[in-house]
């Protein structure tokens, strides 16, 4: 008689993979979302997997359309034309959550340009919520920004817009016909002819990288409901920030743009031919600080040769909501510390001050943390100020002078970290 198998009579061995859920058991809505993470060409190829997959790609919630350089040669969009045209034709008006165009080093061809513009308008008609555009012309020597058409964006559904390596003008950046738009990210773009960025719905604005601003005039940022701002200016004139009563946090970094003068620290050298002080059209009043005055958290970093912040301090607003402030060495020169004193006197509810001194980036070798003496607190600082941090690469004479100034404000009792 053969030996009896363990497990009892009639019990069968479990099938390999039993208890696991196959991807085919997922609902269509989940598979549509999964397909949105694939490049468009790969998403379409899933049609050969099984009968059920034959048409799933048509309703994918996202599209990733890209082409890039091969062997350092220009990419011809014509190779992509038939695929994308048929893709949009077969998708029809299926709604999109996200769409990404990543077209790098493409030929500068009028037909290709018109086709790309049509693609962008088509995805807007598909009620896309997040649109990302990163496109460059082919050049043997440098990257050349792709020029968008002069038509404004019109969408009732667009919530997030990411723009990279593009040439932008007033028409495209007039978002008055995009009432749901909340987030804009602009990176490495050319905007020399821009007069304004206009949006009442915008809550987050980021302009970073080496964007090229105009050297002859300042454009206006009009976004009264903005909550978060990140602004970097390294080429051209610093833009004018209009009032932002809802602003919570802002980071402003000024590199080596056209707002500098070898003769005056505050942009008033009295030489009417000076391009730095008098070279911008319609340049009157406060440029940055008035628009930032209602923020709760500020990071203000500038090259020491720039004058725009010091000029603004002549009509310095009250930072009535400001609780955390980070400054670099720009605010501590010249040695009279007038710029630092002014902004501290105009920050009545400040709780934390960080001085990031002579550092290449946010990291530092030396970290000192001090606090004001409540019995000897200076009237020049907020009664709410609890923490003062000083970060630097090395404690040299420049840093020691700043510590001496803080000591006059009764800020000491430092704890060191290395």
Protein structure class: alpha/beta
- Report strand %: 25-35%
- Low-pLDDT runs: 7-14
Q: Taking Cα atoms only, what radius of gyration do you get, to the nearest Å?
A: 28 Å
**Can you give the helix content as a percent range?**
10-25%
Query: Helix segment count?
Result: 9
End-to-end separation in angstroms reads 79 Å
Spell out the helices and strands N to C: HHEHEHEEEEEEEEEEEEEHHEHEHEEEHE
Looking at the structure, what is the overall shape?
elongated
Largest sheet: 16 strands, mixed
Mean pLDDT, rounded to whole units? 87
Number of strands: 21
Domain F-box: 20-56
Pfam family, one: F-box
Protein name: F-box domain-containing protein
InterPro entries: F-box-like_dom_sf, F-box_AtFBL13-like, F-box_dom, F-box_SCFL_complex_component, LRR_dom_sf
């Amino acid at each position: 008689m053969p030996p009896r198998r363990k497990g009892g009579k009639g019990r069968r061995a479990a099938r390999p993979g039993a208890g696991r859920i196959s991807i085919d058991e997922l609902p269509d809505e989940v598979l549509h979302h999964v397909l949105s993470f694939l490049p468009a060409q790969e998403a379409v190829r899933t049609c050969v997997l099984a009968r059920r997959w034959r048409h799933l790609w048509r309703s994918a919630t996202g599209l990733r359309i890209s082409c890039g350089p091969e062997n350092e040669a220009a990419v011809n969009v014509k190779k992509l034309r038939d695929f994308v045209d048929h893709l949009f034709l077969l998708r029809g008006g299926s709604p999109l959550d996200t769409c990404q165009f990543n077209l790098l080093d493409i030929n500068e061809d009028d037909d290709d340009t018109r086709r790309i513009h049509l693609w962008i308008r088509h995805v807007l008609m598909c009620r896309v919520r997040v649109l990302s555009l990163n496109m460059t012309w082919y050049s043997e020597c440098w990257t050349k920004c792709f020029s968008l058409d002069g038509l404004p964006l019109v969408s009732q559904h667009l919530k997030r817009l990411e723009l990279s390596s593009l040439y932008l003008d007033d028409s495209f950046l007039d978002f008055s016909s995009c009432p749901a738009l909340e987030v804009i990210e602009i990176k490495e773009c050319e905007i020399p002819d821009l007069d304004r960025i206009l949006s009442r719905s915008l809550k987050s604005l980021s302009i970073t990288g080496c964007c090229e601003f105009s050297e002859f005039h300042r454009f206006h940022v009009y976004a009264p409901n903005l909550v978060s701002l990140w602004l970097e200016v390294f080429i051209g004139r610093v833009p004018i920030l209009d009032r932002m009563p809802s602003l919570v946090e802002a980071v402003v970094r000024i590199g080596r743009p056209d707002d500098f003068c070898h003769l005056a620290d505050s942009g008033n050298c009295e030489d009417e031919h000076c391009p730095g002080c008098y070279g911008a059209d319609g340049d009157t009043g406060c440029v940055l600080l008035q628009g930032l005055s209602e923020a709760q958290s500020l990071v203000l970093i500038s090259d020491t040769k720039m004058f725009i912040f010091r000029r603004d301090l002549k009509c310095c607003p009250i930072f009535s909501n400001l609780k955390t402030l980070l400054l670099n060495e720009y605010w501590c020169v010249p040695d009279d510390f007038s710029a630092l004193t002014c902004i501290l006197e105009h920050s009545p509810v400040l709780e934390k001050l960080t001085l990031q001194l002579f550092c290449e980036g946010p990291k530092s070798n030396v970290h000192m943390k001090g606090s004001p003496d409540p019995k000897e607190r200076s009237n020049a600082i907020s009664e709410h100020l609890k923490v003062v941090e000083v970060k630097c690469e090395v404690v040299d004479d420049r840093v020691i002078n700043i510590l001496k100034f803080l000591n006059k404000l009764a800020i000491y009792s430092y704890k060191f970290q290395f």
